[in-house]
Amino acid sequence: MPSDRLDATFTALADPTRRAILARLAEGEATVLELAEPFAMSLPAISKHLKVLERAGLISRGRDAQRRPCRLEAAPLKEASAWAEHHVRVWEERLDRLDDYLRELQGAEKKQGPRK
What we know:
Low-confidence stretches: none
Order of helices and strands: HHHHEEH
Distance between the termini: 56 Å
Mean pLDDT: 92
Shape: elongated
Strand content: 5-15%
Radius of gyration: 23 Å
CATH superfamily: Winged helix-like DNA-binding domain superfamily/Winged helix DNA-binding domain
């Protein structure tokens, strides 16, 4: 995943309102008015959040007669998840190696006996 796309995804996910919008869209498509209902903010403010999500590729807007429903686009979320999983594995491996090293040190101390 290109770094700028990953940056855009994490930037979009950093805001709780945008995460709530994505959670709602995970249930199915919705219009801007439907997405705005649970929030105490203006429609222009919701539209700004939607633009951030759209630029990050996390949502798309369709056209259904007079309606312009928004829908979730999962690909950027999958890419961000893969990035995070990779780093979790790297750190788990590092911590496992550290744990092994500490066990070796403890074993060496036991063999040497108490220090004077």
